[in-house]
Design goal:
The complex is a heterodimer of chains A (303) and B (450).
Chain A (H helix, E strand, L loop, with lengths): L1 H8 L3 H29 L16 H8 L3 H30 L7 H13 L4 H10 L5 H8 L14 H11 L2 H13 L2 H9 L4 H29 L3 H7 L10 H11 L3 H29 L11
Chain B lengths: L1 H23 L32 E8 L2 H17 L3 E8 L4 H10 L6 E4 L1 H9 L16 H5 L2 E2 L2 E2 L1 E3 L1 E10 H7 L10 H15 L13 H10 L16 H16 L6 H6 L17 E5 L3 H7 L4 E4 L11 E3 L2 E4 L6 H13 L1 H7 L5 E2 L2 H7 L5 H13 L16 H13 L5 H23 L1
Parallel strand pairs in B: 1-2, 1-3
Antiparallel strand pairs in B: 3-11, 4-5, 6-11, 7-8, 7-9, 7-10, 7-12
Helix pairs in contact in B: 16-17
């Protein structure tokens, strides 16, 4: 009996794989292949310009024992992630709540608010950002109007990372759209019932909106987490990792090791460490989710 | 679990894409092979200097530089195609930033250009990896033999010098005149340099500075060590030979100047970008003096015509400046068209018409004959550039290409000195850090030689 069922399930595997083939080919050639190559390179001294030699765990040993830049860049990256993710989520949720109200021309506002995200990570925006936050940039002009003498936001080690965080937070659009969709899913009668019972707006937010939205918060948190760990364009274009390496985030270090210093093997090892790091952070986030994420389908129980 | 893995896999993919983007974003690709000469038009065999006359050949060529250089080079390529209709070009040009990053990736993909503009910092690195072709057959009878040495490794020519440039300084003459100061000249000493700084600062006021802070540029210290009579910063074996006392003295002095507001403050220094109309601290008026190579005279003069005058680097017991080959052409060892590439380089350095088109865009041409032919036609800017070079030339220090493995050292050097600029390190601490870094480079270089 069982064999028969199995046979039926695998009736025509070929057709299935054929239908899958565009994706499958792309996956094997563009994703799986490079992943395997980079794993192999991480155990070699590959330099881009000459053939790789096997060096075993040497790269990893060096990273964890003698490399001074690694702990520094790790610290900056984690600080960046821990500040960016919550700020970005809070901001996205706030805007989503504002755009979830029935006012005239709301579609127009939504489009306009989402706009920065369309051009979000591009080089052009980074260059614009660089000018806005420069010593004689727009931000300081505005501050000057109010009699405040502004700092050099991207050229001072004290503020540069903060400026980049602000830039990441500003690109909240995709999280915002997902929040907006989530907000629309929440049944209105919950709010009606609550207001009949005399619950304040704040209480409604804490007791209804947040719990009902928690699966979406989790999803957005994971997305933002991964995004922020891999932040590169902004650091590369706006500050180029400087001043004094104050914005020298992990991927920036990885890039320079690979393409400026020609240590592709070492950079591959760094990339694998980043992969495990992101995996670990994501796993922790998932582990905590059972304490704060509610799934309606499970009868309002924690997931 | 599956989800976690898919996220992880996806993240790696994103990572890869991000990295790839980063690499290409810095170069302004602009391939404009001369439109008139399509391969089909080249069927009529022409007397080509290369072996394969008549055979359509497409040479890829890459260089970095300013707009003036791009324009002149494009024009020269068109001229060459007109002479040799079978040879067309696909050119890629960009600014200096990212040029060598991109080149390395192209090499690893086997798609590096046939003809490559090379820098003295990387000649030894590239030759040691066997990436450049022997181009000894190029006719260099008209080039100063001592200059040719800079393109050779172990006696074999791998890089053809294209021009000569001297290092010196540029100052904003309009400001110096307005303040009634005695201008720097080609004989000024370090004492004059400090005195000029004090005087100018007193007249400039608070938010203007005298010197663009270039203490994080290895070039400036190289000049200082030379001027103090302590020799070159690398010894004959290619090890770093920065003199401890001299270095600490230099950085301490620079720090005093910075604290006194004579050098630009660190936040201005870090955003400084040479010859950028808005970011260059001398061009945008934040400071009045900075170092400059003589082949950049045309570029800075074009930004604000008639504003700038030039001086040498300050002298100590010896002169500080030197002459260097501004850049080279090299031929890719992986190229299938090495003969054609060499023929082109030969024409590029020896042909009078090419020389006229190119002018001084790569420094003073290497061929004595071309210089003689060009000099009556020099523009005002050209004349200043040549004068600048001739002033530095008599007591110029020896120029040596960076040793194998040290092509990238200047970037780490910059970071270490930036810490002093921002006050998070002292010259003494920075020197220790420098030694440590140099040790890493020496170890890597030794490993590469094995």
């Amino acid at each position: 009996m069982q064999t028969k069922v199995r046979q039926k399930r695998w009736e025509s595997p070929l057709a299935g794989y054929l239908f899958l083939s565009p994706w499958l080919l792309g996956f094997i050639l563009l994703t799986l292949g490079p992943i395997c190559m980079s794993l192999y390179y991480s155990f070699t001294d590959y330099s881009l310009l000459s053939a790789p030699n096997w060096v075993g765990l040497d790269n990893y040993r060096k990273i964890f024992t003698t490399d001074d830049t690694f702990p520094h860049t790790l610290k900056i990256t984690i600080l960046f992630v821990l500040l960016t993710v919550p700020l970005r989520l809070a901001f996205a949720l706030l805007i989503a709540m504002m755009l979830n109200r029935p006012i005239r021309g709301i579609a127009y506002y939504r489009t306009m608010v989402y706009f920065p995200s369309l051009i979000g990570t591009s080089i052009a925006v980074s260059i614009l950002w660089k000018n806005i936050f420069g010593r004689n940039g727009f931000v300081n002009d505005v501050l000057g109007f109010f009699g405040i003498s502004g700092k050099s936001w991207i050229a001072d080690p004290k503020y540069a990372l903060g400026t980049l965080i602000l830039m990441m937070v500003w690109q909240f659009g995709s999280s915002m759209i997902i929040f907006l969709a989530g907000l629309k899913q929440i049944p209105r009668d919950l709010y009606e019932a609550a207001s009949v019972d005399g619950a304040s707006k704040w209480r409604q937010f804490v007791r209804i909106t947040l719990p009902m939205l928690s699966p979406i918060i989790l999803f957005n948190a994971v997305q933002s987490l991964i995004n922020s760990f891999q932040m590169f364009t902004q650091a590369f274009v706006v500050t180029n990792g400087g001043p004094v390496h104050s914005t020298y985030v992990y991927v920036m270090y990885l890039y320079q090791t690979a393409f400026t210093k020609f240590q592709m093997g070492y950079a591959s090892a760094l990339a694998w460490i980043l992969l495990f790091l992101i995996g670990a952070f994501t796993a922790v986030l998932f582990a905590t989710s059972r304490y704060w994420v509610f799934y309606e389908t499970q009868g309002g129980k924690r997931g | 679990m599956a989800r976690k893995w898919s996220i992880a896999v996806a993240s790696l993919l994103v990572l890869a894409t991000v990295t790839a983007c980063g690499n290409s974003n810095n170069s302004k690709d602009a391939s404009s092979a001369s439109p008139g000469a399509s391969p089909s038009a080249s069927t009529s065999a022409s007397p080509s200097a290369s072996g394969g006359a008549g055979e359509p050949v497409k040479l890829t060529i890459a260089w970095w530089g300013s707009q003036a250089r791009h324009d002149a080079t494009q024009k020269a390529l068109e001229q060459y195609t007109a002479l040799h209709p079978n040879v067309t070009f696909e050119s890629t040009f960009s600014g200096w930033d990212g040029y060598f990053d991109k080149l390395a990736v192209q090499y690893s993909a086997g798609s590096a250009p046939d003809i490559i503009q090379m820098d003295a910092a990387y000649v030894n690195d590239y030759v040691s990896r066997g990436l450049l072709a022997d181009i000894g057959s190029i006719n260099t009878a008209d080039v100063d033999p001592s200059l040719m040495e800079s393109g050779k490794v172990n006696g074999v020519l791998y890089a053809q010098p294209l021009g000569v440039a001297a290092i010196g300084m540029v100052y904003d003459k309009t400001v110096v005149d307005k303040l009634g100061l005695k201008a720097p000249d080609f004989n000024w000493t370090w004492d004059d340099y400090y005195a000029f700084g004090q005087e100018a600062k007193a007249k400039l006021g608070n938010d203007k500075y005298v010197y663009a802070d270039q203490s994080a540029d290895l070039v400036d210290y190289t000049a200082y060590q030379y001027s103090m009579g302590k020799g070159y910063i690398y010894d004959a074996e290619g090890n770093l030979a920065i003199d401890k006392a001299t270095w600490i003295e230099y950085q301490t002095k620079q720090k005093e100047l910075r604290d006194a507001g004579i050098l630009t403050p660190p936040d201005l220094t870090t955003t400084d970008k040479e010859l950028d109309p808005q970011l260059d601290n001398v061009v945008n008026g934040n400071a009045i003096v900075r170092h400059l190579f003589s082949n950049q005279v045309g570029a800075i003069d074009a930004l604000k015509p008639g504003t700038y005058e030039y001086a040498s680097l300050p002298k100590g017991s010896e002169a500080g400046g030197w002459l260097k080959p501004s850049m080279f052409w090299s031929v890719n060892a992986q190229s299938k068209h090495q003969e054609e590439a060499k023929a082109f380089i030969d024409w590029f350095i020896n042909d009078l018409e090419a020389g006229k088109t190119l002018g001084l865009t790569r420094g003073t041409p290497v061929s004595g004959e071309i210089v003689a032919a060009l000099s009556p036609e020099y523009s005002e800017g050209d004349k200043k550039g040549v004068e600048f070079m001739n002033q530095v030339a008599p007591d110029a220090q020896k120029f040596v290409n960076d040793p194998v493995g040290y092509g990238n050292f200047k970037n780490d050097y910059k970071l270490i000195v930036e810490k002093i600029q921002f006050g998070s390190s002292t010259p003494e601490q920075a020197y220790e850090e420098l030694l440590k870094k140099a040790g890493e480079y020496a170890a890597a270089a030794a490993a590469a030689k094995k």
